[in-house]
Amino acid sequence: MLTTRPTGTNDFLPGESEKWQYIEQLCRQVCAEYGYQEIRLPIFEHTEAYLRSVGETSDIVEKEMYSFEDKGFRHMTLRPEGTAGTVRAFLENKLYANPQPTKLYYIGPMFRYDKPQAGRYRQFNQFGVEVFGADHAAIDAEVIALAVEIFRRLGLTGLTVKLNTVGCAQCRPSHMEELKTYFRQYEDKLCTTCRDRLERNPLRILDCKEEGCKAVAKGAPTTIEAACDVCSAHFQKLQEYLDAIGVRYEIDTNLVRGLDYYTRTAFEIVIDSVGSAQNAIAGGGRYNGLLAQFGGDDLPGIGFAIGLERLLLTLKEQGIELPVGTAPAVYIAPLGEAAQKEAFVLAQALREKGIYTEKDYLGKSLKAQMKAADRFQAKYTVILGDSELEKGVAIVREMASGGQYEVQLNQLAEDLEGRLK
RNA sequence: GUGGAUGUGGUGAAGUGGCUAACACACCGGAUUGUGGCUCCGGCAUUCGUGGGUUCGAUCCCCAUCAUCCACCCCA
User: Fold this and answer.
1) Domains of chain A, with CATH numbers?
2) Which of A115, A334, A399, A415 is positioned for an S-S bond with A339, CB 3.0–4.6 A?
3) What angle do CA A71, A50, A94 make, to 5 degrees?
């Protein structure tokens, strides 16, 4: 009990953590090139922030939130996604006073009380991007391009950008009514959850995977058909912009996002993987009106998030190796207590020069230390025994060739530094 | 929340109602005195997720529980 982690959480051990660092570094690099700046936010927010934004009828709010009451009886929730917190911070810190648009990114853990399975965890990590204050379709295209660029640099293949427009405050209400009217005719053919969705959120029926519902949904009026002129024009322009930079996409009229705040552009990046049913590796869309819901000015917004566990999973499936750390340049093998101290001093001197240095801490035999140096794949091993100490020298062995020579102790750090240049 | 599968040392795994629970890898130590990668030798599970039960006796049978994995659902 004391040695089991909570269900749905992960320990990322050495060997794995380097991969995370690599991916995070890549995300930061691409963001820097696209002009997105990092925002670091709390891990929990007021529960209302999610009720109001993600939507009370969404699965996330209805059954997946890690909510608790703090000692002051305030309702708190471990963030299930990044957009609500980013919007909150944008307004609270009055970033709207800066020249717009504001282009932000975040990276970190999210929490959802799901039943874990491949590519789905209760604590999982997302890299996400949010842009406020720009309504032009160019920014929609840029955001999609940014996600695709990250995947491209990783060498991923077989990904598809699925695109849809899901309506806005103008066209959604009438479309919802159309949908209700349409689906009511086939109510008996819908699954139980979809019957439930019919009145509350008929849009979601379009996304249902049940065969019966899928068949019915085929004939339903699509969001594209129902789109108002502004939405249509926006969607058209987005496609033109994506075409212009060669980002390929597929229009999926059934694509509906599970979070209620999306308007107009909705997209998802899926990967045809064999290993996992969780094939959506990134998802996002536009959310004009969300800032107003938080009580701010009615600035437009758009964003997406990448599920990093899924990204790692996909990389593994596609056999893409990420760097897992570097080998030490120097391994110091002391023999005896006097040498141990000398080795300690030498290690410090080398490290101060920026040289990755390993040493023995256990007083192992020379043989065992050589083995360790070999396992570390150290470039050089410094052997420091009593006879060397007496002469004020150390033996430096180049591991690959097996050649070795003596160096004066007081010149050792400089000597190694020179050789490693 | 629903359904399915699994749970033997650090890892991958064999195994059977009954004497000291295979094997491989990893790890540790050794093969003449202070030197790696190959080879050889030795060590490494009072114990088979946990708690009950059946039995003369259970890792192998039953029940419960916990955990993991997979699918549905949902989503990243």
Assistant:
1) 17-171+227-317 (3.30.930.10), 330-416 (3.40.50.800)
2) A334
3) 90
User: How do residues A96-111 score in pLDDT, each as one tens digit?
Assistant: 999 999 999 999 999 9
Task: Give me A49's structure tokens.
Answer: 């922030």
Give the separation between CA A178 and CA A418, rounded to whole angstroms. 76
Write down the pTM of the prediction: 0.91
Å from the A3 CA to the B21 C1'? 25
| Nucleotide whose C1' lies closest to the alpha carbon of residue A193 | B73
Look at the alpha carbons of A185, A191, A192, A194 in this order and tell me if their dihedral is positive or negative. Answer: negative
* Nucleotide with C1' nearest the A363 CA: B34
Which positions of chain B lie under 7 Å from any protein Cβ?
1-3, 27-31, 34-37, 66-76
- ipTM of the prediction: 0.86
Q: How many CA atoms lie within 13 A of A133 on its CB side?
A: 15
d(CA A248, CA A156) in angstroms, rounded, equals 14
